[in-house]
Amino acid sequence: MASSNAQVKKVPPAVLRYILAIVSFAIALGLALLAQRLNFRNVEVPLFLFAVAVTAWYAGPLPAAVTVVLSILFFDYFFTEPLYTLYVTTSDIPYLIVFISFALLVAWFSTVRRRVEQDLRQARDHLQIIVEERTQQASLLNLTHDTIFVRDMNDVITYWNRGAEELYGWTPDEAIGKRSHDLLGTVFPAPIDDISAELLRAGRWEGELKHTKADGKGVVVSSRWALRRDEQQRPVGTMETNNDITERKRQEEEVRTLNRELASRSTELESKNKELEAFAYSISHDLRAPLRHMSGYAELLQKKASSVLDEKSQRYMLMILDSAKRMGNLIDDLLSFSRIGRTETQKSLVNLEQLVKEALTEIRQDTDGRNIVWNVSTLPTFYGDRSMLRLVFVNLLSNAVKFTRTRPQAEIEVGCTGGNTHEVVLYVKDNGVGFDMKYVNKLFGVFQRLHSSHTFEGTGIGLATVQRIVQRHGGRVWAESLVDKGATFYISVPMSQKNTEEKYG
Amino acid sequence: MDKVGRILMVEDDQKDVELTLTALEDYNLVNEVVVVGDGEEALDYLYCRGQFKLRTGDNPAVMLLDLKLPRVDGLEVLKQVKSDDKLKLIPVVVLTSSREEQDMVASYKLGVNGYVVKPVDFHEFVNAIKELGVYWAVINEPPPGSVKK
Question: Does domain A255-343 have CATH number 1.10.3470?
Fold first, then answer.
């Protein structure tokens, strides 16, 4: 192929062409003279015509003309009467005209034929280039991982790339010539007539199709169709490019299933929460009423019968009243504990120093008449639920006040240890009775108490509440203590994005 | 302070009724307390129907309303009262055991005039009732059309 191209392009230099003209004439002359010597008659004209033809063929019209002129001169000189002169008799003129006409005719034919042959060769080479390009393009389509095939207007497959073979499992030989929708068992998302109409109108169509592979497995593809038209704009075929999205669809389905599960779980949770709320509600209403009655009637009885009751009976009355009150406190604490779990946290920026002040005001009745040295250091601003955080400090501070009761001078410290940018660590430290570290696990449990209620009263819910609130803020609580050497309660809460902004913004 | 308004008490618990009346005794307010046992009766009283068909049409000076009531509950009564042009001027004080936020919010949304949680401690309870009774039946000037003697 390459050598033929070179031949076409290689035009012989002019000199070579004229040399060819002279050489071919010389050979013809030599042969003619030889034939004359051997007494062969009338061969000189065909020989000269042959030389003209060869020259015209290989060297073109101008060298051929040279051959013609030379042939005429030497023909006249050697072969027409009078011999060995260039003199032309009138009887020779028709003969010469015929010769010249023949020579020109041969030259012209040769030239035309040569040109035709050259054109043909060029056309062939051009065609070969096109074929080569097409082949390259087709092999490029084979390189892509996308599944590409072409089908004619009867949906018969005419091209099938390697991606198609890989996805569906049929070789091009198996696929080409089959009707694509039959072969692939296509399931369309819309009536096929609508899709065809859309394709003819817009020249393209996109959608999801379900196909069945050679091994019988289903596959979901994202399909793009492009309509091919000929020069007269008549539709001749469709190129279909498909991407396997089976896995993606499966994952989407999985996500949907998970979401549904999540939704049903959260509905379940919501109903559980509602139940809990109804439970707490009825406790709030129904459990408090009989308590109120107990204490009410006991009070009335005490008032009415105090004059006739002896000291012991009076004490019994007091015990009843005290128990009722304790029960009331327990219910209140338990309700507030359960409320923390039930209600949404409503977060805002909270000034912790301000919050500690409020907590101190709230527990004033416990601190009145006590000798307490307060040491509250600078505290940061924190993003959290204000009322819950106040409950944390009320609990921790009232605990500190309670368990330092036996000290002539209580020392209570509220501070903030360095921590880091991710979390803030707050602590409440007292010099009270402390606790044995081996019971530290029980400290934050509901109804867990480390002191008997006659030495230190309490419901055993306070620290559980503290822990629950801190946990709802994503933090943790812990405590350190030595018996009789005071206790320190720590809270560490993560600095949320908002907190960090506050600190550095 | 010479006139005492009529108090309509809506309370199903007889013990609570007794304790409340005891608390009001000291201020001679008991005679003007009308006690009904549920929401239905409360509405009967206000609309002068059923067993209250024969009473004069004046409104009470204040209504002490429990929330948890048989048949028609307290919030339902409150809703009725506050949506009726003839009744909505009656001051309504919710007197309940519940400290639940949802009850408070619902009551205030319906236009309640006061919300009192019955204390467990009897002293506090008595004080609360007395103050309530004195304020609404004696100190407060009720809207026109209320019973005063």
Answer: no
Sheet holding A157-160, edge to edge: A157-160, A147-152, A235-244, A218-229, A204-212
d(CA A345, CA A51): 112
Would you say the ipTM is above 0.95?
A: no
B99/A332 CB distance under 8 A: yes
Residues of A with CB under 8 A from a CB of B: 280-281, 284-286, 288-289, 291-293, 295-300, 321, 324-325, 327-328, 332, 335, 343
Contact A480, A423 (CB under 8 A): no
User: Which chain A residues have a beta carbon less than 8 Å from that of B106?
Assistant: none
- Residue ranges and CATH numbers for the domains of chain B are 7-139 (3.40.50.2300)
CA distance A383 to chain B (A): 23
Q: How far apart are CA B28 and CA A143, in angstroms?
A: 103
For B122, which of A288, A296, A327 is closest by C-beta distance? A296
Torsion of CA B5, B7, B8, B14, to 10 degrees: -160
CA distance A263 to chain B (A): 25
What does the pLDDT look like over A112-169, one tens digit per residue? 887 888 899 999 999 999 888 888 877 777 777 788 999 999 999 999 988 899 899 9
Q: What is the pLDDT of residues A466-495, one digit of tens each?
A: 988 888 888 889 999 888 888 999 988 887
Spell out the domain ranges in chain A: 2-138, 144-244, 255-343, 346-504
pTM > 0.80: yes or no: no
CA distance B138 to chain A (A): 25
Task: Name the residue facing B15 among A280, A293, A325 (closest C-beta).
Answer: A293
**Among the partner residues A297, A324, A335, nearest to B120 by beta-carbon distance:** A324
CB < 8 Å to B123, chain A = 299
Per-residue pLDDT of chain B (149 residues; tens, 9 = 90+): 445 678 888 988 888 888 888 888 877 776 778 898 888 888 888 888 888 887 776 788 888 898 888 888 888 899 988 898 888 888 898 988 877 777 888 899 998 988 988 887 777 888 888 888 778 777 777 777 665 54
Superfamily of domain A346-504: Histidine kinase-like ATPase, C-terminal domain (3.30.565.10)
Q: Which CATH number is associated with domain A144-244?
A: 3.30.450.20
DSSP label at residue A444: T
Residue A496's pLDDT is 65
| CA quadruple A317, A318, A319, A321: dihedral sign | positive
